[in-house]
Amino acid sequence: MPLKPFVHNLDALRQQVDELLVARVPTHTWRFTGPKNLFASEVLMGELVNAGNDIARNAITSYQVLRSQKGSQYDIMLSVEYRESAEQRHMVVQRSGDIVAGITRPNMSVHEKILRIHDWVITNFRYDHSKVCYTAYDGVVHGKTVCAGYAMMVGYLCEAAAIPCRIVTGNVARGPHAWNLINIDGLWYHLDATWDSPHSDAPQAHDQYDYYLLTDSEMMADRALLVEPGMRPYPRSSMRYVDTVNQLIALRHSASGFLRQLKETIGLKYLEPAFVVADRQALVNHLLDIYYRRLTHAIVRYRASASQTQSDLAWAWSQVRPQIRDTAVQIQTSMRPYLRGGHADQMLLELQVVWG
Fold first, then answer.
1. What phi and psi, each to the nearest 5 degrees, are found at residue 284?
2. What residue ranges do the domains of the chain occupy?
3. How many CB atoms lie within 10 A of CB 310?
4. Residue pair 346/218 in contact by the 8 Å Cβ criterion
């Protein structure tokens, strides 16, 4: 819809602001013929800017609003500086269509399409620690960008695949951060492609699917939402992805074969009882089981904080060592937080056995 010189009500102005931002138009003036008291507050135009398209909002560097009144005429000029120009946006839209056509097939389920989109972004983008590259265009052309660019690219690819997607802004321990909410068959899930990337700025050890399709309670374990005035409310995410997957498998959904493999790929299996070690005595039993079965590698979910896991592991090994004959055997460990399930303190504990 082209930009108009006149607008008559707030809804029309809101739509016009959104059109301006999506098209990356740098400046436009509207003559507003509706109620003048709407603009008694300086905040209103900022709210209209925040209310629009998520990708466009994240492409803004700064904006300025000038208002002038002569008699009954009221002019509103919006000037915007963008990190991503109209030409750059057009290039990314075209490139996104090509990427989606290359990595997906029309008969794929939305579950598989989202996995392909996520994997493409984390494989092809690197985090720009210099914080010079901010957009999806930077990621496509230069191969690097910051979290906003990752989230924008996921948005562009989902748009090309006709998958509803939002860009979420919030705060983590290091400061502002951006990620996505993705809609799968009417249910929303969080996805943080930046922190799933092997070249990310994530503050701790992670796997490429640690932030893949999480609920609100799972995702908010290490961050908080930031909602600007006027911004569209974020949809709620409350159903665990593992429950969705298990339901579809039980119903013999057409994607059941893919979903069974997906449980292994993204670590959903660690929610199952067979992969849970509940306390330090159970950890002793697990270490002995590894020893007697002559295993070399195991991963389990341990229900404790990182420091408590370290303490319990040292205690458990002190109990196991006197019971084994191979005095040269060593167990090397690593751990990372496990966000799925909504429990604040739980770790994925990886055990490597070195036999003497």
1. -60, -50
2. 6-82, 86-255, 270-354
3. 15
4. no
Is 62 exposed, middle or buried (CB count within 10 Å of its CB: 0-12, 13-18, 19+)?
A: exposed
**Amino acid in the structure at residue 224:** A
Q: Model-level pTM?
A: 0.91
Q: Are strands 60-70 and 73-82 parallel, antiparallel or unpaired?
A: antiparallel
Burial class (CB in 10 A: 0-12, 13-18, 19+), 201: middle
Q: What is the CATH code for 86-255?
A: 3.10.620
Element (H, E) at 350: strand 347-354
CATH code: domain 6-82 is 3.30.1370
Do 45 and 69 touch, CB atoms closer than 8 A?
Answer: no
Using left for φ > 0, alpha for ψ between -120 and 50, and beta otherwise, residue 185 falls in left
Give pLDDT tens digits for 87-131: 999 999 999 999 999 999 999 999 999 999 999 999 999 999 999
356 band by pLDDT with thresholds 50, 70 and 90: low
SS3 43: helix
pLDDT tens figures, 43-62:
778 888 888 899 999 999 99
